[in-house]
Amino acid sequence: MKKIALLGAGFIASVHMEAWKNIEGAKVVAFFEVNNVKASEFQKKYSLPHYNSLSQLFSEQEVDAVDICLPTFLHREYTEMAALEKKHVFCEKPIALSLEDAFAMQKVCEDNGVFLMIGHVLRFWGEYVKARELVASGAIGQPILINAFRLSVTPVWSVNSWILKSHLSGGASLDLHIHDLDFVNWLAGNPQEVFARGLFREDSLDHVVTTVKYGNGVVASIEGGWMMQGDFPFTCGFRILGSEGVLEWTFRAGVNIEERAQSSPLFLYRRGEQRKLVEVAAEDPYREELAYFLKCIEKDTPPGLGTPEQAIEALRLALAAKSSVIEGERVLLEEL
Ligand SMILES: NC(=O)c1ccc[n+]([C@@H]2O[C@H](COP(=O)([O-])OP(=O)(O)OC[C@H]3O[C@@H](n4cnc5c(N)ncnc54)[C@H](O)[C@@H]3O)[C@@H](O)[C@H]2O)c1
């Protein structure tokens, strides 16, 4: 049985906690949280030992791995603390706010012989996984053009509104848009050129349309933002055009990802054929990614999904998009 310490007791920590409950071979043994209100709510619900000091948690609890569900600006600090204690690290996306922090996280985990996996959950999300499998199997021929999008209302739940402060969260471009940047990288390989336009609120890039040219000639248009109004439902999806066909999926939920019921199906369109409905098993992608992380620890094999390299590539693209919006110019990724 692997013992997990959960860091944070906010929105995504609860999603992870529910997922860990359904994973055999792992147990959350304690949680770390500095906010007393959040801590007591979480403790009431899950009856777990609570710590407001991570070093105290480590000195009193035997732990194999940490699951970092803290605000992004804290990812490096807590990854370093855990790695120095020889704990494997699962950390929510985005890996960090800067490439410097991300490389430091990668290095400290390597130097201490522990795994670092980043929660790029689309790599475990049924429709995204299935689309990638279909593309790899040649179902749409050569992919040519990829469109991916993710739209929501402004998130209001975060403690002290950290998510709305660009220097703490990176704005929607790093927090939300990065999911799709990672997905398109996963499909198309090495991004080469970026041109983006977007909307700032104060210094937070909160809606962005990023066009990317990949080394293999694939072109992508990726849109993400949290400036939707009223009860506009959380919406995401993709359309992948290939030389022989198209894959399309759109998902509309409640105002946030917690209501994941109402999804519209994945369709495969091929030249000369009737469209096909593609069946996708409705697994919890958060459970899938954490179960995968656990398997990697059990087998002592480094994760191949949500690797620091993949997370750094997605961050590099998000930062390139932001600088393209600011400069109004195309950014070549080699230049960063
Ligand atoms: N993969 C996904 O789908 C997904 C979804 C939401 C959030 N996230 C990521 O998860 C992370 C957390 O986001 P959230 O929405 O759960 O935020 P949140 O505000 O709901 O929770 C963050 C928790 O960290 C604690 N915290 C705040 N400041 C702290 C500090 N200075 N020191 C220690 N702890 C502190 C808060 O008290 C809170 O309990 C972010 O990196 C975010 O990008 C990922």
Automatic annotation (TrEMBL):
- Record's Gene3D superfamilies? Dihydrodipicolinate Reductase, domain 2, NAD(P)-binding Rossmann-like Domain
User: What residue stretches are annotated with the GFO/IDH/MocA-like oxidoreductase domain?
Assistant: 128-248
> For the Gfo/Idh/MocA-like oxidoreductase N-terminal domain, which residue ranges apply?
3-120
**Which Pfam family, just one, is annotated for this protein?**
GFO_IDH_MocA
Which residue ranges run through the membrane?
none
Per its UniProt record, what InterPro entries does this chain match? Gfo/Idh/MocA-like_OxRdtase_N, Gfo/Idh/MocA_Oxidoreductases, GFO_IDH_MocA-like_dom, NAD(P)-bd_dom_sf
Protein name listed in UniProt: Gfo/Idh/MocA family oxidoreductase
What species is given as this protein's source?
Answer: Thermatribacter velox
